[in-house]
Amino acid sequence: MTPTPPPAMSDAAFVLVLALLLVSPLAIAGLALINTGLGRSRSAAQSLLGSLAIVAVAAIAFALAGATFAGTAAGASHAMHAGGKPWDWLGAAPLFLAGLGSAPPQAQLGLLFEFLAVTLAALIPWGSGADRLKLTAGCAVAAVLGALVFPLVAHWVWAGGWLAQLGLNFSLGAGFQDPAGAATVHVLGGMAALVVVWLAGPRKGKFPPGGFATAMPGHNAVYILFGCLLALAGWLAFNVAGAVLWLHAPLSALPGAAVNTLLSASGAVAATFAVTRIRFGKPDASLCANGWLAGLVASSATAGIVTPVQGLVIGLVAGVLTPLLVEVLELAVSVDDPSGAIAVHGAGGLWGLVAAGALAPQAGQLLAQLVGIAALIGIALPLVYLLLWVVNRFVPLRVEQDGERIGMDLHELGGGAYPEFVIHRDDSYR
Amino acid sequence: MKFAGLLVMPAGFFLALAALVLFPASSAASRTAFVLCGLAVEALGLVVALRGHMEDKETSRS
Predict the structure, then answer these.
(1) How much is the pTM?
(2) How many C-beta atoms lie closer than 10 Å to residue A283's C-beta?
(3) Cα separation of B39 and B45, whole Å?
(4) Burial of A420 by CB count in 10 Å (0-12 exposed, 13-18 middle, 19+ buried)?
(5) Complete domains list, chain A, with CATH
(6) Do B9 and A381 touch (CB under 8 A)?
(7) Cα distance between residue A246 and residue A159, in whole Å
(8) Scanning every residue of chain A, which has its alpha carbon at the shortest distance from the alpha carbon of B20?
(9) Is the confidence at residue A218, as pLDDT, over 80?
(10) Which residues of A touch B13 (CB under 8 A)?
(11) Are A264 and A296 a contacting pair, CB within 8 Å?
(12) pLDDT tens digits, one per residue of A56-101
């Protein structure tokens, strides 16, 4: 069966989605600020400049190659037949965005959504590699994600690919649903973060021989917490725009999607506040920020689907799981992830996708979501590892030892973010 | 060991895909069980890969 083209969009919906997408880069700004605050002070300028560079490289890579592979719904694509069903696995849109101006308005909005989504996805592993990832390495990771991996998954999910057609071909609900990028942006970004941490290794002194993991707290709680508020504005825009674009939700359903986003983040931060207060005696600012973000990430899958109470409960669960997972990854699995992206974006996104399936009204929706998760873990994760392993052979991800000792700002930029302040030397953490 | 874990993950994915092709829509329980088995295989691969990562860390400490 061939997919039916998406229903036509009204002028009001078009203007609304365009306006929302122009606000959604606030999520990117928030994430960049959070990543910078969670790193060390001697790497702050490199972190923010890296964020700018990564956004630029991801956008260029997506324009040059990624948009072709991502394709558009009802557009040209590569499909194979197996088991009597078509498996649409790769887009075949014109090269270099040719014909963009004459494409249907909805397809143009979808492309703009994907441009913003790919930059957000590429930014996620940058926070996990903080304090030891080179600028060139961050850009190389962004190029790989923007040109190859993100487009593949985006085609499967948003452009009539085989995951989107699970409902049509295999009677699994409405097919795999990911209205605001829980899978394509966050799970993919979280998995790329895991691979970056695997390949780059931990920061110097993080796991000393025969001892416990050394605490390396973020250098600026104000950046972190203000970044959370910025991210909320961007997420509200992403979730509402995604509900119109990919779920074809009526305008009357959009305030509900925004309320669900806010409730999910609120529930999550309240739960993390309580968990960290019980665990440590006082609430932990950076973990609360992680919890807030995990609630937002989970809402990316659920905001347009669930009721407000369900949205709140989804956030509460994300807020309990996130600080515990951050602790397990660091203390039990020896994963040095300064931004907590693996737990926040990877696990938070997976939880949102499962919750969206479990709470959806259509029969078979949960199974469709599980198949989508199986595709992400079974294909996208090994593919990201393979590609970044090759990148690491040619462009080493990790900075030289001297660079890590003096700080990324001095080593890569020749000057610090805070020239008037005394910056801690490496020894002061031990 | 990390590579072994990463190789196991696609196997789990193909198990999940096989569930869709082999079982009709009417046998939802069998499909679900098969897909869950596929996810379990992927989880196993992830655990093996994480164990490999921990072993690498232990080696580099000593």
Answers:
(1) 0.95
(2) 17
(3) 10
(4) exposed
(5) 17-74+100-422 (1.10.3430.10)
(6) yes
(7) 9
(8) A170
(9) yes
(10) 374-375, 377-379
(11) yes
(12) 999 999 999 999 999 988 889 999 998 888 999 999 999 999 988 8
Distance between CA atoms of A296 and A48, rounded to whole angstroms? 22
User: What distance in Å separates the CA atoms of residue A112 and residue A107, rounded to the nearest whole number?
Assistant: 9
Q: A residues 56-115 near B, CB within 8 Å?
A: 82-83, 85
Give chain B's domain count.
1
Q: Which of A209, A373, A385 sits opposite B62 (nearest CB)?
A: A209
Q: Do B12 and A382 touch (CB under 8 A)?
A: no
Which stretch of DSSP H or E encloses residue A87? Answer: strand A85-91
Paired with A80 in beta bridges are A87
ipTM value for the complex: 0.95
- B26–chain A nearest CA distance, Å: 9
Helices (H), A178-304: 188-200, 221-247, 254-280, 285-302
Put simply, the answer to whether B13 touches A378 (Cβ < 8 Å) is yes
Say if CB A34 and CB A68 are below 8 A apart: no
With contact defined as beta carbons under 8 Å apart, do A88 and A67 qualify? Answer: no
Q: What is the mean pLDDT of chain A?
A: 94
Burial class (CB in 10 A: 0-12, 13-18, 19+), A282: exposed
What pLDDT shows up at residue A25?
97
pLDDT confidence of residue B25: 86
Mutate which of B6, B39, B48 to test chain A, going by most A C-beta atoms within 10 A? B6
Of A202, A367, A378, the CB nearest to B32: A367
The mean-pLDDT minimum among A28-42, A96-110, A185-199, A307-321 falls in A96-110
Q: Residue A180: helix, strand or coil by DSSP?
A: coil
- Distance in Å from the first CA to the final CA of chain B: 19
Q: Provide the residue range defining the domain that includes B55.
A: 2-61
**Backbone CA torsion sign across A317, A359, A3, A168:** positive
Q: Which of residues 25-44 of B touch A (CB under 8 A)?
A: 25, 28, 31-32, 35-36, 38-39, 42-43
The size of the A-B interface in CB pairs under 8 A is 82
Q: Which residues contact A256 (CB under 8 A, 6 or more apart)?
A: A308
What's the rounded mean pLDDT across residues A352-366? 96
> Which token pair is A72?
């558009």
